[in-house]
Amino acid sequence: MSIFLSSAAFANLSPNPQKKFSKNPPSCYLRISSSSLNCIKVVTQMLQSRFLRIPLSPTTLSPPKPTTTLLSLLSLARKPRSQMSSYATSSESPKLLFRQLFEKESSTYTYLLADVSHPEKPALLVDPVDKTVDRDLSLIKDLGLKLIYAINTHVHADHVTGTGLIKTKSPGVKSIISKASNAKADLFVEAGDTIPFGDLFLEVRATPGHTLGCVTYVTGDGPNQARPRMAFTGDALLIRGCGRTDFQIFTLPNDTLLYPAHDYKGFTVTTVEEEILYNPRLAKDEETFKNIMKDLNLAYPKMIDVAVPANMVCGLQDVAPKAI
Ligand SMILES: N[C@@H](CCC(=O)N[C@@H](CSS)C(=O)NCC(=O)O)C(=O)O
What we know:
There is one protein chain. By secondary structure, this protein is of the alpha+beta class. It folds into 2 domains: 2-77, no CATH class; 96-311, 4-Layer Sandwich (Metallo-beta-lactamase, Chain A), CATH 3.60.15. It is 23% helix and 21% strand. It has helices at residues 7-11, 34-52, 75-78, 133-142, 163-169, 246-249, 272-278, 286-295, 304-312; strands spanning 2-6, 29-33, 96-103, 108-115, 122-126, 146-151, 174-178, 187-189, 194-197, 200-206, 215-219, 231-232, 257-258, 270-271. β3 and β4 form a beta hairpin. α2 (34-52) packs across α9 (304-312). Bound molecules: ligand L3IBWBLD. Ligand L3IBWBLD binds next to loops. Keywords: Acetylation, Dioxygenase, Iron, Metal-binding, Mitochondrion, Oxidoreductase, Transit peptide. Residues 107-262 form the Metallo-beta-lactamase domain. It is found in: Mitochondrion. This is persulfide dioxygenase.
């Protein structure tokens, strides 16, 4: 079974002044198979749980299964290691040129993508760093590409973006960042937008947590687009980790009252200061935090298969698709 959602409904979009920038108009329909939806919903819940530190449901505290961890909410993670699929470690497309570049002081990856089958070889850089701009521009020149966009996944805290410097050195290049970041750029994107370069394109997905404006750029779905798809996650998801989320809540004033979405112990309210001092999970180093989360042995949420698909359509699952 496939579920059809308008991209606006899917991403809970407000009207977007940058729509002219999108390749696909907002009325286009995104086709999501129920298995993809399953995957999206589980990852969404996992990330919400991770970022907001909220147990997934009351049932999550029920008797543990020995191998159940937060990650095991992903059905893939339940497979024994020996049964893990051997996926490709790089994508292929007759059109796409892809390079992963590294800046060692901040351990930052910059990604270069270009449509080399297009006469102009239009290219974009994701998360360029000021210190490596010359290297990146020199590579782009060597490869005969035309840089059109310098894109950020978010407002970085550990390095200066290369986009400003790139614009002074290559005046035709447009900078892009999410509208939700509140940063300056030539173009602003939000969930559901697409960024075309030649016949290829990136999709924008909102992945806030590390910062409010964090987005993930995903390579397009369709003929000639990269297979497998590639997602540039910024700091939302790191390999075997994720970006810190303390920037969000713990930068609020100490007396800020915190009202969570759940409580399983009878508490009703807390403050930033209290949680900084006494939260038994967050007042720990990262390794201890990971172990605590792993050892929670959270069970598969009872309602997840019903709740998430329904909530993805605002609880209107029984209403004809046209009305949603
Ligand atoms: N030591 C580095 C910053 C390290 C750091 O905090 N990294 C961030 C992403 S850049 S703001 C992060 O989220 N790390 C998560 C993790 O698991 O390491 C510096 O001082 O710049």
